[in-house]
Write a structure and sequence with these properties.
Number of strands: 6
Keywords: Methyltransferase, S-adenosyl-L-methionine, Transferase
Oligomer: single chain
Distance between the termini: 75 Å
Radius of gyration: 25 Å
Number of helices: 11
EC number: 2.1.1.221
Shape: globular
Catalytic activity: guanosine(9) in tRNA + S-adenosyl-L-methionine = N(1)-methylguanosine(9) in tRNA + S-adenosyl-L-homocysteine + H(+)
InterPro entries: MT_TRM10-typ (IPR028564), MT_TRM10-typ_sf (IPR038459), TRM10/TRM10A (IPR016653), tRNA_m1G_MeTrfase_euk (IPR007356)
Organism: Vitis vinifera (Grape)
Largest sheet: 6 strands, parallel
Strand order of the largest sheet: 3-2-1-5-4-6
Length: about 325
């Protein structure tokens, strides 16, 4: 009886948890580096927020002191003048939004077709999906700010990815192609023009062909899925190419870039027709080898900072603007 009872207890006792996965020293270093960068970024963001708050408070006090120092008639004139300035700013913003809408509408007919392939959501964690959604939002913000935007496509907008995208403010009103189907289904009549951009390709992209449709893989943490985009393109029988990064600079790590970095590089090249300038303006200094970036390091770093500020402002506008503004 004791043996039977012991056996029952063993069956009812939950199995011990598996031992924690031990990371390699290299992986631990990468994790710590990423955590330090994220902490530094959060600290910088908090400092900027506090600085803006103080600046707004200072301006408010200055305004109140100014009103208190003048008579009633002058006060009325100051208030009316301020209202007029606000009205002018609102009208200017409205005009800028209309121009952006017009540029994006024209891009549907004449812009370079660029696809973000979102068929990899099942391979990503919720945090990685959220990261990709933020990258897509960034892509749209940068594209609509361009003087000559591309015609941006999102394919595979379903499942977890589709749900997350729908949560973005005004996503339904974005002037962009949104397809639940994969690109190979949605663009089957243009299969001969499809070109998958992958770092594993042996073909170097020298120019952007207006007739081609360039595909960027929407996948975060490619290190877990090395070669997956190249394999996919080969199985589908479509062309592949890689950006000519190695011709212009050495990367301090792999040549794998985020989706928004690839899109922005393509947009810069469409504008400048200069790969080197496009790479140096978009690829962060921390990803570049030191020797290759010395000649334009100072100039580019300042440009990067300005661009980042403009793009953050653009995304903030997208969150606050009416969805009907596109």
């Amino acid at each position: 009886m004791e043996a039977v009872e012991a056996e029952r207890n063993d069956q009812n006792t939950p199995a011990p948890p598996p031992p924690p996965l031990t990371l390699s020293k290299n992986a631990q270093k990468k994790l710590l580096k990423q955590q330090r960068m994220e902490a530094k970024k959060a600290e910088k963001k908090a400092a900027m927020k506090e600085q803006k708050k103080k600046e707004a408070e200072r301006k408010r006090k200055e305004w109140e002191e100014m009103l208190a120092s003048v008579d009633e008639e002058e006060r009325s004139k100051l208030i009316e003048s301020r209202k007029c300035l606000r009205k002018e700013r609102m009208e200017k913003r409205s005009e800028e939004r209309e121009k952006k809408v017009q540029r994006l509408t024209n891009a549907k007919e004449h812009g370079q077709n660029i696809v973000v392939d979102l068929d990899f959501s099942d391979l990503m964690t919720p945090n990685e999906i959220n990261s990709l959604v933020q990258q897509i939002m960034y892509c749209y913000a940068v594209n609509r700010r361009c003087a000559s935007p591309c015609h941006l496509w999102l394919t595979g907008c379903n499942g977890k990815m589709g749900s997350q995208l729908q949560r973005l403010p005004g996503f339904d009103k974005w002037i962009i192609e949104k397809e639940n189907q994969s690109y190979i289904e949605a663009l089957q009549d243009e299969k001969h023009n499809l070109v998958y951009l992958t770092a594993d390709s042996e073909t170097i992209l020298d120019e952007l062909d207006p007739k081609k449709i360039y595909i960027v893989g929407g996948l975060v943490d490619r290190n877990r899925w090395k070669g997956i985009t190249m394999k996919k393109a080969q199985e589908q029988g479509i062309q592949t190419a890689k950006l000519p990064i190695g011709n212009y600079l050495k990367m301090s790590s792999s040549q794998v870039l985020t989706v928004n970095q690839v899109i922005e590089i393509l947009l810069k090249f469409l504008e400048t027709k200069d790969w080197k300038a496009s790479f140096f303006q978009v690829i962060p200094q921390r990803k570049r080898g030191g020797a290759d970036s010395e000649d334009c390091q100072g100039e580019v770093e300042e440009g990067e900072e300005n661009e980042e500020g403009e793009d953050q402002l653009e995304m903030k506008k997208m969150r606050t603007e009416s969805p009907s503004n596109g």
